[in-house]
Amino acid sequence: MPGAYHFRMSTPEPPARTWPSRAGLKVAGLFAAMIAVAVVVLTAFSQAAPGGSPGEAVAARTTSTPARALAPSVAARRASPPITVVGIGDSVTTGTNCDCETFVGLYATGLASERGLKTSSVNLGAAGWTSSQLLTALTRPGAFRDQVSKADVLLVTIGANDLVGLESSQPGGCPTTCYGPLVDSVGQNVAQIVAAAKATQPGHPPTILVTDYWNVFQDGDVGTSENGQAFQSWSDILTRAESARVCSAAQRAGATCVSLYAPFKGNGSKNPTALLAADGDHPNATGHQLIASTLLAGTPALIP
């Protein structure tokens, strides 16, 4: 056993058949007695009470690495408090026109599976919200802000409704100088939204993932049928402009930008109809699953 003293006694060779003298017997007896006394002393010394005994010192040198120095096991991670995923944004977040589980819940489930964690999710999306409305809700004391303050991972999808007023515009009548100020305003609000979300818990800021859109208006077969190809081409330009502004603002504010454009539309030539609800505007169940998987792929390796 580690920490114990072991005495190995070698087997003596058989003595020669000689008859020792009486004096030799006395000397031998005295020598044997001395050995016995030494063995008793050493035994007592090795069994001394704790507090600096040699046996204890050896044991201390041979103990295994303390548990706190080892990497946490999967069981330990599962025993830790759940990671709270909170989704904020507009009707895409709420799952409008899709009788399905939204990407917020799907993401939380996927995160638990991929990272070996326990997760919970809260969906605070509000259909019709603009970036200004979301920012106001985040900076005003109340239940909404309180719930965001509990997030370990915050998912943000906002900005399409800021551009609703442009839907009635003719494509040729609203160039960059027309929509540029609105796009810039969305970017500024997104940066402030990220900052406000962090301010709700300064000692434990959440991991924040901000998405863009595949189209700020209708898309796919429905969009083309109702608005015409020229409008669809213009809305694509507008969408790309807002996406670039939102992503740059989010990244500068310390969030991660997760683009949904390529997953839905590739390089712009892919028809996203199969991922959209019947209104051609919101994602269907398959679309929500795609958003969740895209967010998972974009999640930093380290989260709170």
Q: Taking all residues together, what is the mean pLDDT?
A: 81
**What's the main sheet like?**
5 strands, parallel
Shape: globular
What is the CATH-assigned architecture of the largest domain? 3-Layer(aba) Sandwich
Percent in strands: 5-15%
Supply the helix-strand structural class.
Answer: alpha/beta
How many strand units?
5
Helix content: 40-55%
Q: Separation of termini?
A: 43 Å
What CATH calls the topology of the largest domain is Rossmann fold
What is the name of the CATH class of the largest domain? Alpha Beta
- What oligomeric state do these chains adopt? single chain
Order of helices and strands: HHHEHHEHHEHEHHEHH
Which residues sit in consecutive blocks of at least 5 with pLDDT less than 50? 1-74
Rg result: 36 Å
| Count of DSSP H/I helices | 12
Number of domains: 2
Please name the fourth-level CATH homologous superfamily of the largest domain. SGNH hydrolase
Tell me the strand order in the biggest sheet: 2-1-3-4-5
Structural write-up:
The structure is a single chain. This protein has helices at 22-46, 54-62, 74-79, 91-94, 103-115, 131-139, 143-148, 176-199, 220-227, 229-252, 261-265, 285-298; strands at residues 83-89, 119-123, 153-157, 207-211, 256-258. Residues 1-74 have low confidence and may be disordered. It is an alpha/beta fold and 304 residues long. Strands 2-1-3-4-5 form a 5-stranded parallel beta sheet, sandwiched between helices. The protein folds into 2 domains: 22-62; 78-298, SGNH hydrolase (Rossmann fold), CATH 3.40.50.1110. The longest helix has 25 residues, at 22-46. The chain has 12 helices and 5 strands.
